[in-house]
Backbone:
């Protein structure tokens, strides 16, 4: 494998001068973990609501399993919507790694780097990946798509939720979704299937984050807790 | 109790007088009006007004036409253990022209319809059951040589309002299910210039039909409707939220097959495809056949028959999710979704192994003391400062 490598091997820095780069503000970090927890809760309770895989026995009056599942689902959904509000606000109020521009890799340089990043992943050549402080273009694209999918999940979720009261605000605000998609059962179907997108996304996201941290010693994992990274003082980045 | 044929209607007679002739006492009649007010969600104060309006009524104020349908809606109206006052009212205010019930036939019958429409032009209520086939010039339904579309347009032209009774008149029902070979549509797809109220259901509950007609006869206008033209007094709430088995749903107690112990205990039918959570209908409250029972009460999941396109979107009737494309996609989709999630995890693991091998080789080839600076052209960042391994 080393024979087909284009670049000579580089050692990882272990000593030397470092600088602190601040990337993720408190709102982003809080939003990330709140959404992460909520999405796990939503997926687990949502799959139960879709197909109750566990049942109670005895008198109905002594149980409230589906009731609690739905309560948790709707509460977690409320948390996700609040994180979305924070994220949208921070698209305009955040620093340049957090702003909306950092989520749309449309410049020529970013598009070229997107392909280089994809190539580095596919061919397992991590040293060929273009270095970024914030999100690389492939991340930018996948997070933007994930936001769009999450928005679809929120909208279809509200359309289903609104059904409980046809005079209520949620029904009135979202009852255009059903006819648009050909009926509430189709809305339920789409809402159900999008869950799988998150289930597929989760292992990839966690793996690539850990992988970057291990391979590059670039404190990717801790950046979503501490808010920034320690990088070699003289290292250059595409988005520095 | 009341025989529908004992007394023929005489010219100039009011409905109140006629009901008296048929043995309906004043008390029974006012009680009936009170019940109807409750169905419509009106207070007691509306009872005298309704009684007065119905008493002074002179026929015919309702014209009922039947198009592409199975007559199930008419059956639903008349199939009670004994004719109620509501049946008599419907019977007496209309049904001069009803394919299922009228005695006349041929040109006589058509003449009766024509003269009723002419005499009451602009004032009568048009009740329609059945859909209108539009494909191939409407040849799939003709009465007396004229197409359903022509008949409907002509009858609607002189109507004050139109009541579309049943799923067929609502949106087309089973004949409009994919691939809809006759091009069947509901009444509201053709009549655009008049209020069309949809009494949804396959068939709808008789009380809802009667109550809507009486609301019009009493107040001269239609009851408030939802976005799909269905009267809110009947279709304002989901079956799920009025269901007698809701406690079992909330408790997490579900029937998984129709012969299991849960089915015998009367648990929730959600698992076997009940569409109650997506269906707006008063079935749990009004029930059927003189409030004898209703589908979920009898242990069968709701099919969602008051919702548009339920033959396509609510199927499979015994499954939770719609059968998009008609080949069991929802089952396949869950399998594919789970397989992709497992596959993504496996792919991630494989990628991690490949990365590990790559990295191990790279580190083994690193110089022990110092590394030369500079990368290739494909890696623009300068190399980190030389460090000791």
Residues:
């Amino acid at each position: 494998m080393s024979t087909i490598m284009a670049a000579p091997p580089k050692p990882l820095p272990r000593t030397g001068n470092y600088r602190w780069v601040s990337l993720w503000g408190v709102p982003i970090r809080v939003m990330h973990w709140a959404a992460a927890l909520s999405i796990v809760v939503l997926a687990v309770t949502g799959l139960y609501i879709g197909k109750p895989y566990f049942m109670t026995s005895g008198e109905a009056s002594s149980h409230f399993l589906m009731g609690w599942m739905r309560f948790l689902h709707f509460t977690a959904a409320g948390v996700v919507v609040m994180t979305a509000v924070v994220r949208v606000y921070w698209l305009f109020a955040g620093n340049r790694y957090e702003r909306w521009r950092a989520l749309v890799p449309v410049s020529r340089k970013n598009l070229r780097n997107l392909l280089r990043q994809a190539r580095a992943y596919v061919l397992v050549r991590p040293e060929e990946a273009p270095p970024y402080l914030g999100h690389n273009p492939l991340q930018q694209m996948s997070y933007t798509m994930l936001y769009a999918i999450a928005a679809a999940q929120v909208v279809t979720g509200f359309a289903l939720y609104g059904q409980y009261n046809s005079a209520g605000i949620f029904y009135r605000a979202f009852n255009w979704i059903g006819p648009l998609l050909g009926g509430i059962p189709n809305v339920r179907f789409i809402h159900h299937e999008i869950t799988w997108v998150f289930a597929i996304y989760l292992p990839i996201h966690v793996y690539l984050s850990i992988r970057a941290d291990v391979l590059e010693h670039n404190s990717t994992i801790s950046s979503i807790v501490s808010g920034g990274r320690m990088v070699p003082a003289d290292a250059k980045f595409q988005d520095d | 109790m009341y025989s529908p044929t004992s007394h023929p209607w005489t010219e100039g007679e009011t409905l109140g007088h006629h009901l008296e002739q048929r043995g309906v006492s004043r008390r029974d009649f006012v009680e009936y009006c009170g019940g109807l007010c409750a169905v419509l969600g009106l207070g007691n104060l509306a009872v005298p007004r309704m009684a007065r309006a119905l008493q002074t009524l002179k026929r015919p104020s309702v014209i009922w036409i039947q198009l592409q349908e199975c007559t199930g809606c008419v059956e639903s109206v008349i199939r009670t253990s004994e004719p109620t006052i509501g049946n008599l009212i419907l019977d007496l205010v209309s049904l001069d022209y009803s394919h299922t019930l009228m005695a006349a036939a041929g040109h006589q019958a058509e003449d009766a319809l024509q003269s009723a429409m002419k005499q009451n032009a602009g004032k009568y209520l048009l009740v329609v059951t059945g859909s209108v086939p539009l494909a191939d010039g409407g040849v799939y339904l003709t009465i007396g040589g004229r197409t359903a579309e022509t008949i409907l347009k002509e009858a609607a032209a002189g109507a004050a309002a139109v009541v579309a009774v049943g799923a067929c008149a609502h949106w087309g029902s089973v004949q409009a299910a994919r691939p809809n070979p006759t091009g069947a549509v509901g009444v509201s797809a053709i009549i655009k210039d008049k209020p069309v109220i949809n009494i949804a259901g396959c068939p709808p509950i008789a009380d809802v039909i009667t109550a809507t007609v009486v609301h019009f006869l009493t107040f001269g206008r239609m009851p408030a409707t939802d976005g799909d033209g269905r009267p809110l007094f009947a279709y304002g709430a989901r079956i799920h939220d009025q269901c007698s088995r809701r406690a079992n749903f909330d408790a997490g107690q579900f029937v998984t097959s129709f012969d299991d112990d849960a089915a015998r205990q009367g648990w929730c039918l959600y698992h076997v495809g009940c569409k109650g959570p997506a269906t707006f209908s008063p079935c749990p409250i009004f029930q059927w056949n003189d409030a004898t029972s209703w589908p979920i009460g009898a242990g069968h999941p709701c099919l969602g028959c008051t919702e548009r396109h339920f033959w396509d979107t609510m199927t499979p009737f015994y499954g939770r999710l719609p059968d998009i494309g008609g080949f069991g996609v929802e089952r396949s989709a869950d399998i594919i979704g789970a397989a992709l999630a497992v596959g993504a995890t496996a792919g991630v693991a494989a990628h991690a192994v490949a990365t590990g091998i790559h990295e191990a080789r790279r580190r083994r080839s690193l110089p022990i003391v110092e590394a030369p600076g500079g990368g290739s052209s494909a890696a623009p960042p300068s190399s980190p400062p030389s460090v000791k391994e």
About this structure: Helices of chain A lie at 26-50, 65-93, 108-122, 137-161, 169-174, 177-181, 184-216, 220-226.
